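Hi U.,

Before I forget, here's the chain from the pilot set. I'm dumping it here mostly so it's searchable later in email.
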Amino acid sequence: MNSSIVKTSLKPYNTFGIDVSAQKILNWKSEEEVEVFFKGGDRNVLVLGGGSNVLFIKDIDRTVVLNRIKGIEIINESDESVEIRVGAGEDWHEFVLYCLDQGWGGVENLSLIPGCIGASPIQNIGAYGVEIKDVLLRVEAVSRKDGRKEVFGNSSCKFGYRDSIFKRSHKNQYVITAVVLRLEKNRKVNVSYGAIQSELEKMGVDSPGIRDVSNAVIRIRKSKLPDPKLLGNAGSFFKNPVVTREKYQSLKKRYPQIPSYPVNDDQVKIPAGWLIDHAGWKGRRFENYGVHEKQALVLVNYGGATGNKIYQLSEKILQDIAERYGISLEREVNIIK
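Structure:
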């Protein structure tokens, strides 16, 4: 295990670029290191992957551990599919590109999502009609309580919209060390989202393959979302709310243009970005932070902003949306206080 550095800034380790410090920083590069660490009884740690889904409010008075467990291993293969075990510290987008190079389909719609593999099952990452649960077989994790390794099958993870047991009943109880996925060698691409189809048409692609879909997704995301290397952000700050059809019909009478996506016979998903934009928040800037000009779901740090300022902005947006539409938005970003 790498030695610690006293009072180290966490600015390089979070995509918001918030400059807070930690008492001590460690690196984990193997599952065994994680097991040994928690068997030793030191459990009051903050584990970071890519730091792409966190907002720091203040300095961290505990050990911060960077999960850097690498490795991609084929554990089962047939003419139709491949099962692979991927270390939690692998970069998600780099992994997607690796799969494309191998001709493995299933994650191409999830291109350019920031963060590491280990975070993907926690919030069941998804985009353009695909979620990680669609290809995930199991999650390998180590208990913070005693350093014991456990394996969670797909159904045990209780996946929901940007949700899993790792965000609910098992929150902060385990450290994910690896995930096992099943990908397809002759993947029928998913272009059900109109934005992908439109982008493919702009690209002049009539019969798209997995790489074409990935390229289309990358182009769409780059056109709407700021690069965290250039402008501090954590992607979508809020989840799209799911409401009853009755609630939606009531809103539809007041706002005929409100968009929606059916979830089931009784529920409808409303784009949080539309609600925030329609409420007038899109593009608003306050000192050195604000709401992105192209995507109302994204809160940004223009440079030197504190996490608390951005958090207070999110509070004002939550309150405004609740008062205007009677909808309680949820943050997608983890607030580290």
